[in-house]
Design a protein that fits this description.
Rossmann fold, globular
């Protein structure tokens, strides 16, 4: 099977953010505040991953942002296909790697942060 490598000429989309797999419940107002803060700071793409342990209310909020140009929601399952006990680290690493490789040739910068962090100074500084 041939290996396809994207052309590197398309890096003009600024900053992309990759977030590890989402577990549990994150309050809606905090998620909305986080997404809108990232947008105001100039982030052009956010890769988010829902796991089987993502709370339904949190999943609904993530799904609403999936319908915008800012974010893409992907679902990541556990390796064993059931409880995922002991697989949290592997699932998080897989989600982050997937996001980075998807944006490697489309954005100038790719940052890996969590929902309790913001990406400051994302505007390119002219030298």
């Amino acid at each position: 099977m041939p290996i396809e490598v994207p052309r590197q000429g398309g890096k003009n989309n600024g900053v992309a953010i990759c977030v590890q797999a989402t577990y549990g419940h994150i309050k809606r107002h905090l998620l909305v505040e986080w997404f809108e803060t990232q947008r105001l700071l100039g982030v052009t793409y956010i890769g988010i991953y829902a796991s089987p342990m993502t709370h339904p209310e949190t999943r609904r909020t993530l799904t609403q942002y999936d319908g915008t140009p800012l974010a893409q929601l992907r679902t990541i399952d556990y390796i064993d296909g059931t409880s995922g006990k002991g697989h949290f680290l592997m699932v998080n690493l897989a989600a982050i790697n997937d996001c980075i490789y998807r944006r490697l040739y489309t954005h100038q910068f790719v940052a890996v942060i969590d929902f309790d962090e913001v990406c400051l100074n994302v505007s390119p500084i002219p030298y």
